[in-house]
Amino acid sequence: MRQLRVLARVAVETVIGLKRGGWSNWLVISILTVALTIFGGVLQLTMSLKNVVSSWGSQLEISAYLKDNYEPGKVAKSVSQIADVQVVEIVPKEVAWAEMQSNFKVAALNNPLPNTLHVRLCTPEAVERTASRLRLMDGIEHIRYPLKVARNLNRFRQFLEIAGAVVTAALTAATLTVIGNTIHLVIQAKHREIEILSLMGVSPWYIKGPLILQGAAYGTIAALAATMFLVVLHLYLDPYVRDQLLSFLPVLPQTLDSGNLPTFMIVLLLGVAVGAGGSAWTSGRYIKI
Amino acid sequence: MIRLQNVHKEYAGRPALINVNLHIGLGEFAFLVGPSGAGKSTLMRLLYREETPTRGQVMIGGVNLTKLSPRQVPLLRRRLGIVFQDYKLLPRQTVTDNVAYILRALGVDELDVQRRVTSALCVVNLEDKASAFPDELSGGEQQRVGIARAIVNGPPVLLADEPTGNLDPSTSLEIVQLLERISQRGTTVLISTHDHFIVDSLRRRVISLKNGQIVADVDSGLYEMEAKG
Predict the structure, then answer these.
(1) Judging by DSSP bridges, how do beta strands B2-11 and A140-144 pair with one another?
(2) Domains of chain A by start residue, with CATH
(3) Residue A223 in 3-state DSSP?
(4) Is pLDDT at A256 greater than 90 in this prediction?
(5) B149 vs A195: CB contact, 8 Å cut-off?
(6) ipTM
(7) Is B109 in Cβ contact with A203 (below 8 Å)?
(8) Do the beta carbons of residue B95 and residue B137 sit within 8 Å?
(9) Beta strands in chain A (DSSP E)
């Protein structure tokens, strides 16, 4: 019961601190909202692009040409057991030959084509690895796949991952600085009060607790505002962007939606964590009891 | 209740206290006197653990302050009442809230808080100013609020660091007589001061410091005995 009363007092002190902050609260929240909105937008863009790249990657096919005396169904079964293989499509040589005959004028020959497997993978980075394994399998005579495209897609994915991490780190540092400076100003304004409380024997966490909660409140409000902006942007911009891109990127519409909820959750968690963490660090640094 | 054994305190190699030995018993009332720079404030800061001695031991109620961890310091300070020259009141809180602050921070039940605050304000005769803010009070009244805050948690030791430094002589005497009454209820009271008038008026134990050393320790003393010591 006593502990609950102390917690209630810490909450009251937090509210008092926020009330005293006045307009400076809104300044901090505005800056944090901008930072978190940029972060959320970049995160969403990065995640969407990664999904697009993955989709493109999964469209990459490895064509495996089989030896004559092997049963395509058996080989296809073995291939489908390889990790990262999503779909294995059998193209019997009779079908391929008939198609060729319908498309091109070809001489009346015996069917020279082999049975073929079209292998689709989950991710583009699995293409080279899987191709190497296929080459070693019994029954496979030869394989063909777009090596350069696979490599470029992998490079682009890696670039997106690094760019996302750099942007995240930069914006986290920026928000931490904003929170830290704000709480530092609050500590300076309350310097005398903190000294008095310390001399009265008030516990350090009772002094620092309201400041940490104040930072967490800034982060939470800013994260909610940023999420609201991102939802609005998503609702109004997505249809337009989709229409514009649909003509030359047919794979985009299926993948652009993914990543919204995780983005909002990450923005919210980051806001709270950076708010509370920044003020905890600043309180620890500047309040010596 | 208060014991200092061979206490040395140096700041950047310059001695502020030199081999101080002192004992003040339970419920005793004493003045710590001396000119500016004698080491009074340093000694007081050692007692409420704002500083630690370079050498020697400082004990309060059997607790060795030199061995306290930072986490234990608030626990010590809750057992001390501290009165300051500049009152150190929270300007945006009423008299009641200033006095009640520590009790609320400790999670004391609100009814108990009100009872104890009323009792403390009664001791310092400020019941009628309970709703006032510090800047609405005179210096003497502000110091009485400081004393009410210091005694509200029922501490066995009360330390007053130049409590009359900002007050006129008659108000100073009132404040010191108030502290004397508190001492008569069983609280150990140590007042650091360089105010001759109040020391000579009360004629209680006087511990004289000069250049960081105790030069006299006299029961029923006068301020000037320091010079003779």
Answers:
(1) unpaired
(2) 2-56+152-286 (no CATH), 61-145 (3.30.70.3040)
(3) helix
(4) no
(5) no
(6) 0.83
(7) no
(8) yes
(9) 61-66, 85-91, 116-121, 140-144
What pLDDT score does A255 carry?
Answer: 47
Please report the domains of chain B, with CATH numbers, ordered by start residue. 1-79+157-229 (3.40.50.300), 89-154 (no CATH)
Q: In degrees rounded to 5, what are phi and psi of residue A89?
A: -110, 130
Query: Which chain A residues have a beta carbon less than 8 Å from that of B108?
Result: 2, 5
Q: Please give the share of chain B, as a percent, with pLDDT higher than 90.
A: 63
Contact call for A200 and B102, based on CB within 8 A: yes
Model pLDDT, residue B229: 43
Judge whether B33 and B206 are in contact, CB under 8 Å.
yes
Q: Report the range of poorest mean pLDDT among A56-60, A204-208, B196-200.
A: A56-60
CA distance A221 to B73: 36
User: Which residues does residue B58 pair with via DSSP β-bridges, in sequence order?
Assistant: B4
Contact: A203, B88; criterion CB under 8 Å: no
Nearest to B93 by CA among B141, B139, B132, B148: B132
| Residues above pLDDT 70, as percent of chain A | 89
Q: Backbone dihedral region of A161: left (phi > 0), alpha (psi from -120 to 50 degrees) or beta?
A: alpha
- What mean pLDDT is reported for chain A? 82
Collapsing DSSP states into helix, strand and coil, what is residue B13?
Answer: coil
Token pair, residue B168, equals 């006129």
Cα–Cα distances in angstroms (integers) from residue B5 to residues B12, B29, B55, in the given order: 22, 20, 9
Interface probe for B, chosen from A192, A200, A203, A208 (most Cβ of B below 10 Å), is A200
User: Which residues of chain B have a pLDDT value below 70?
Assistant: 225-229
C-alpha angle A67-A73-A74 in degrees, rounded to nearest 5: 75
Higher pLDDT, B205 or A260: B205
Q: What is the pTM of this model?
A: 0.70
Sign of CA dihedral A5, A11, A16, A17: positive
Q: What pLDDT sits at residue A250?
A: 53
Amino acid identity of residue B48, one-letter, is Y
Which pair of structure tokens corresponds to residue A104?
Answer: 């091109």
- How many Å apart are CA B213 and CA B15, to the nearest integer? 10
Candidate from B50, B80, B105 with C-beta closest to A9: B105
Tell me if A79 sits within 8 A of A66, measured CB to CB.
no
Other C-beta atoms lying within 10 Å of the C-beta of residue B215: 16
Which residue, chain included where needed, has tokens 């030069």?
B215
Quote the minimal CA–CA distance from B19 to chain A in Å.
Answer: 26
What residues of chain A lie within 8 A of the CB of B104, using their CB? 5, 9
